[in-house]
Amino acid sequence: MNNFDFKNPTKIIFGKDSIQKLEAEIPNKAKVLLVYGGGSIKKNGIYEQVKSALSKVEVIEFGGIPANPEYAVLLDALQVIKEENITYLLAVGGGSVIDGTKFLSAAALFKGDTPWDILSKNIRTEVGMPFGTVLTLPATGSEMNSGAVITRKETKQKLGMGGPGLFPKFSILDPQVIASIPKRQLANGLTDAFMHVLEQYMTYPMGALLQDRFAESILQTLIEVAPRIIKNPKDYVAASNFMWSCTMALNGLIQKGVPTDWAIHGIGHELTALFGIDHARTLAIIAPSHYRFNFEAKKDKLAQYAERVWNIQEGSIDEKAKAAIIKTEGFLHELEIDTKLSDYTQDFEGTAEEIAKRFTDRGWLGLGEHKNLTPDKVETIVKMSY
Length: 386
Hints:
Layout: E1 11-14, E2 31-36, H1 46-53, E3 58-62, H2 71-83, E4 88-93, H3 95-108, H4 116-120, E5 131-135, E6 147-152, E7 157-162, E8 170-173, H5 183-201, H6 209-231, H7 236-249, H8 263-275, H9 279-293, H10 295-309, H11 317-334, H12 351-362, H13 375-384
Parallel strand pairs: 1-8, 2-3, 2-4, 4-5, 5-8
Antiparallel strand pairs: 6-7
Helix pairs in contact: 2-3, 5-6, 5-7, 5-9, 6-7, 8-9, 9-10, 9-11, 9-13, 10-11, 12-13
């Protein structure tokens, strides 16, 4: 295993009716900005639970954070923070709302020329405005990590940010919220978490036995509970395991001591920026082509994944590895997640070249665990995904 440091300061409050514990986590005399998305929390009862728990707290509301947190909308929220002298942020939503709140946390204390510099110049946030979360859609793991991705529609950009100052102080995870999530979003959440694990696992063997088995156990759990969640989101046992798997998939634990990839995410973000395709579905588009293009470098780990996760015991390493890719595609198709760009848009010609150019312009000249995926190779992978 590689050397590593690991610290995750986020307090997790997990279980039935845990939203009612919210008030105890908010500092005395805090002035809170309640940040949420399109308003679904007002239809499923979560808003009422949150407001009840915060009945003794001074709260200003800001709704309307879109599915891909939009920079221009967040600037409006930032203005509210400054005008109202907000001292604490509360994200009530899924990964997009939490990511948007992380941007606000960083921007509220940022001393530079423009908040966009945080993203365009990849400025790490050492200290941000404190915030907590109430998770309503398991998927991204943003409730227990310090990363975020923000979209800017006017320039068709989607960029990441992070830093130790952007861990939530606490996150409330009540699996009961899953009961009201539409099937499409459940499928996205399952896909997103699955791909998060693969990005940290599907590299090459290096003797990190426990880390591998952590990752494999999350994959196995997601495969097991996926059909149950899709069929009956009110299945509390399935919902609990789904929610915790999503959190564990990206809270930093399984990536420690091992190489990680993240090229799929880097490419997928561009598909969202260009076409507005759901984040999880962009990962499903790129992953199979990525693994086939990098087959020789990844086949040992693909074969291990085949054996341990999909119980494929027959055949050579190459045969098992190829079968694992097919199994992964099959799992996604069972979730009704398409795996080709042409399934989402017919305006795909030139996409590969555009993404390669963007990477070149940004100086992203070596993606993947070996840092050898140059823009021309990225172009080939994208074309394979058409």
